[in-house]
Design goal:
The chain is of the alpha/beta class. Helices cover 32% and strands 22% of the residues. The chain is globular and about 60 Å long. Bound molecules: iron/sulfur cluster.
Amino acid sequence: MGNPNINEQLTLPPSCGGVGGGRRVAFKTLGCRLNQYETDALVTDFDKAGYQLVNFDESPDVVVVNTCTVTNQSDQKSRTVISQAARKNKDAVVVVTGCMANNFKEKLESQDNITFVVENNRKSSVLSLVEAHFSGEILHPEQLPQDVFRYEPVQKSLHTRSAVKIQDGCDNFCTFCIIPMVRGRAVSRPVADVLESVRKTIENGFKEIVITGVNIGRYEDGETRFEDLLAKILDVPGDFRVRISSLEPDGFGDRFVELFQHPKLMPHLHLCLQSGSEKTLLRMRRMYDVGQFRKTINQFRLVDPDFNFTTDIIVGFPGETEEEFQQTIEAVKEFNFSHVHTFKYSVRKGTRAERLENHVPEKIKTARSLQIRELSEENKNLYYRSLIGKTQQVLVEKVSKNKATGYGDLYVPVEFQAKDIQKNTVHTVKLTGLSGEGERLVLVGELVEICV
Ligand code: SF4
């Protein structure tokens, strides 16, 4: 890839009138919900411009890999996907974007099998870059506008729910985290833009929207804070429900809890604990302690005893003793998370944790990770069992052989037998039992009422 004059930034319309004309595009996304949303928005852009969405092995003309760099493992997965994509599609335009494109920019730019490396803040203009390429124009990614909120509302998606991005970046600088370096400082999308995006997403037929960003609890647009914005979103007319994606356990107050009494706001939160040890949390430079976390959980469960909490835990953070790890085990039991997303700590270059002492041997990290995963499975089983006999409003995501599957209000997977049920419809289902195990454990139910 050459490096032409990059001083000039182009101002592009949200979606250029396409030269797609039957060209084929394939996408691969790694990492978080925010990345998934950004891919969905790009899918919508390419679809509108006349491209056909295909899989990697269906000879695409364009391959977009939206990478993640949160751990060493994510880097490794991203690298594998990039080389597979390039190897399988030697004549395709290969675009690499996402957090790895920021973290390893020069290295990726030096690879012959990648056509364009596009940083996160220019990702929303990938279509313009590809169209320029096919039109024979020379356009360097750094000439694309920097705008993290330029994404069009999702229209075509591989999913039943659509995210709406309200915020990007983070100012917290937890000692282990690379995100502030690859996503930048915290920025919030203007209220009017968010509400417009919510309206359009509903008009596009989505029945569930997921409020997303890097640290959404820190949303701030003038006087409007996260809770105020959420209240405005819930007031948007229409037949839809709202979920919150991952949330840091600080920065919100009592009003946030009260908002969950609104019928459109679903009773599930992915609240990132990271560790159950006060000492580890201090070394991580998290903004809360275990006591505050407990208070938050209890507030929600007082309003709704079935409220579903999931979390992230990092095991083997530098200096994590056996005693500190046991405190995490106790916390996972006490808070009864129905799912724990477990990460083995891995060094991210340039973070403060890189310089901490007493790094934990890999063998111990692996053993601790396994313990948390087993505990997570036990918790899930207990939680799902406790829901048998209750009802859920299930948004159907898949229908096959008269069997419908989807997620209930509590964000639990539910399957039920039903004839003539359509995808993207909501139904009242009485939970009667469990099926499958491990990752495939689902609640089984009986259709009570067809709602919408
Ligand atoms: S809150 Fe901490 S862990 Fe989360 S993105 Fe910000 S710096 Fe990273």
